[in-house]
Structures are given as structure tokens and as C-alpha cells.
Specification:
By secondary structure, the protein is mainly α. Helix content is 85%, strand content 0%.
Length: 71
């Protein structure tokens, strides 16, 4: 759970690393073995989703989505 701007910065940095890992897998693994790429990409993808949920909660984006859904 993100509770301050420093933690937000750390989460964004972690997301950048996860995106770079996915890009490397796509570049190096996908052309040779798409199924292996899919398996190896699951971890970074799960982490990206987890970070995005935490960022959305901290920034209020989650609440905005709820407000728009009920409008």
C-alpha cells in the first residue's frame, strides 16, 4: 500500500523496471518461443497490475472511476 509520495516514486520506478523486463522478454524470447514468453511475462504482468492498483488507490483514480460509474 502506498502511503506517501516517496512510496509513489518507488512504485513508479518498480513499474519502469517491470516494463523494461517485459520489453526484454518480448525482444529476446518471443521471437523464439511465444509460449515461453507468455509464461515468463506472467510475473512482471502481475506486478504491474498490483502496482497500478496501489497507485490508483493513492492518487484517487479508483474513486474517480467509481464516481464516473455512478454518474
Amino acid at each position: 500500500m502506498i502511503t506517501n509520495d516517496a512510496e509513489l516514486g518507488q512504485a513508479l520506478e518498480q513499474m519502469e523496471r517491470m516494463y523494461r523486463a517485459l520489453a526484454a522478454l518480448r525482444r529476446d524470447v518471443y521471437p523464439i518461443n511465444p509460449r515461453q514468453f507468455a509464461l515468463l511475462a506472467e510475473g512482471p504482468q502481475d506486478e504491474l497490475e498490483r502496482f497500478q492498483e496501489q497507485i490508483d488507490a493513492y492518487t484517487g483514480r479508483s474513486e474517480l472511476a467509481e464516481l464516473h460509474a455512478h454518474a
